[in-house]
UniProtKB/TrEMBL annotation:
Protein's name according to its UniProt entry: D-galactose/methyl-galactoside binding periplasmic protein MglB
Pfam families, alphabetized: Peripla_BP_4 (PF13407)
Source organism (scientific name): Clostridium hominis
Domain Periplasmic binding protein: 38-312
CDD domains for the chain: PBP1_GGBP (cd01539)
Lineage, opening ranks: Bacteria, Bacillati, Bacillota, Clostridia, Eubacteriales
Length: 344
């Protein structure tokens, strides 16, 4: 694990992103270039936030290649929301002697199987975005997790509504009954961020003395199309009663906005989480009140820095933000006042 041959000659820097699992030996030198092999398997490749993380990992690998004259192969595979696919992908990474495996797991409650595979092959494993339960994280010394502080994302989403309610109550409480009537678009069942963001966004508002009334909530599995469909149904059912749409992520928030546009409704407050570019643009264009950046760059840095360190010397003492087995990145609240800074 992490063994490399040091070339005595000037080395060419080659970056290869290979979506098919290769069959080269882990210690093979290609064109006199050192090689580190990092396997990445994601629950669903077309998830906007996850694809942002993986794209950032690729950029970090390119930068490190130039700095260190080392060939870094990043193989990114799509499990297509199928745990069996993902287990097979992990097996292929192990069979082909990858230095580190990074997993955005399909089912966070099933991490033990993957951890045991990694342990048996002595291959460090880094979970990201979907946190295994604590018991599974303790199964082996070389298991790590990189993600965000889910509680804080919910709190900051709630605070966006508090700020608006405080500055212009009538913009939210349109019927003047002293309550916020809302609907909640939830992420995938079983994902820790779904439960935590849902709970803390509302709890934060209530703790600040603002009454709320839930009209409806349902899962849309982080997806634009499902959220649009759910929102369309709620518009038909509740019409002008809906004052706020809470969404566990931006992609679902954007789906809700599309449904509102088609219904020619423009006075419903929508808030999301993630800070994807399309959501930031929606905030700038007054289609969303705000979002919460779930720093994909910081998360990618955490994943890559652990992986690179484990693949080289195994020393994690210089990995910024690592506390034991965990890196938990900070969130940033975004509204019309600061969105231009983050769009840049």
């Amino acid at each position: 694990m992490g063994k490399m041959r040091v070339s005595s000659t000037f080395v060419a820097i080659i970056f290869m992103v290979n979506y098919l699992v290769g069959c080269t030996n882990n210690n093979e030198v290609y064109n006199n270039v050192e090689e580190i092999k990092i396997g990445v398997t994601v629950y669903k490749e077309d998830d906007k936030f996850i694809s942002t993380i993986t794209n950032n990992i690729l950029e970090l690998a390119k930068k490190k290649e130039k700095e260190e004259n080392v060939k870094i192969t990043i193989d990114i595979l799509d499990a297509k929301e199928n745990l069996a696919n993902q287990c097979n992908q992990v097996d292929k990474f192990i069979l082909n002697n990858y230095d580190v495996i990074c997993v955005n797991i399909v089912d966070r409650t099933s991490a033990a199987t993957i951890i045991d595979k990694a342990k048996s092959s002595n291959t460090p494993i880094i979970f990201f975005n979907r946190e295994p339960v604590e018991e599974d994280m303790r199964r082996w010394k070389d298991v790590y997790y990189v993600g965000a502080e889910a509680e804080k994302s919910g709190e900051l989403q709630g605070s966006l509504i508090i700020d608006k309610y405080t500055s212009d109550k009538s913009e939210i409480d349109k019927n003047g009954d002293g309550k916020i009537q809302y609907v909640m678009l939830e992420g995938e069942h079983g994902h820790q961020d779904t439960a935590i963001r849902t709970e803390y966004s509302i709890k934060t508002i209530v703790q600040n003395g603002i009454e709320v009334e839930k009209l409806a909530d349902d899962t849309a599995n982080w997806e634009f199309a499902q959220a649009k469909s759910k929102m369309t149904g709620w518009i038909k059912e509740f019409g002008s009663e809906i004052e706020v749409v809470f969404s566990n992520n931006d992609d679902m928030a954007l789906g809700a906005i599309e449904a509102l546009k088609e219904a020619e409704i423009n006075n419903v407050i929508v808030v999301g989480v993630d800070g994807v570019t399309e959501a930031l643009e929606a905030v700038k264009n007054d289609e969303m009140l705000g979002t919460v950046i779930s720093n994909s760059i910081a998360q990618a840095e955490g994943i890559f820095n652990i992986a690179y360190s484990k693949a080289t010397n195994g020393d994690l003492s210089d990995v910024e933000g690592l506390e034991g087995k965990y890196i938990k990145t900070k969130h940033i609240k975004i509204d019309k006042n600061n969105v231009d800074v983050y769009l840049k």
